[in-house]
Design a protein that fits this description.
Elements: H1 3-55, H2 57-62, H3 77-95, H4 104-108
Helix pairs in contact: 1-3
């Protein structure tokens, strides 16, 4: 075999290897986006639960979580409006989450 044939064969092998690497990068890029969207969804879920338990400590107690037993928020028109404002903002942030980038399991949440 001549050296030209060997270098052509080697160049072809490098091209195939690069094509396979590009394919793997494309396949792996999807889960990276899903992981990012999943992470955002997890943070939003945790924030929602934390807010609900903090603002409604009686709910936490009913669920067996006693970290909020010393809290009791008065239910007033102002506190209800504050909750409504927070919920509208939360709904906006949740709507901004790219659902198509979520993994199947997190999309079900």
């Amino acid at each position: 075999m001549t050296s030209t044939r060997r270098s052509n064969r080697a160049a072809g092998g490098v091209g195939v290897a690069m094509g396979i690497a590009a394919l793997f990068m494309t396949v792996l890029a999807g889960p990276a986006h899903a992981q990012s969207a999943d992470s955002r969804m997890t943070r939003l879920s945790d924030e929602f639960i934390q807010r609900a338990l903090t603002r409604h400590p009686q709910l936490a107690t009913r669920l067996g979580i006693h970290d909020y037993d010393d809290l009791l928020y008065p239910v007033t028109e102002a506190s209800m409006e504050e909750d409504a404002v927070w919920l509208r903002g939360f709904r906006t942030r949740l709507a901004e989450l790219p659902r198509v980038e979520l993994s199947f399991g997190r999309a079900l949440d």
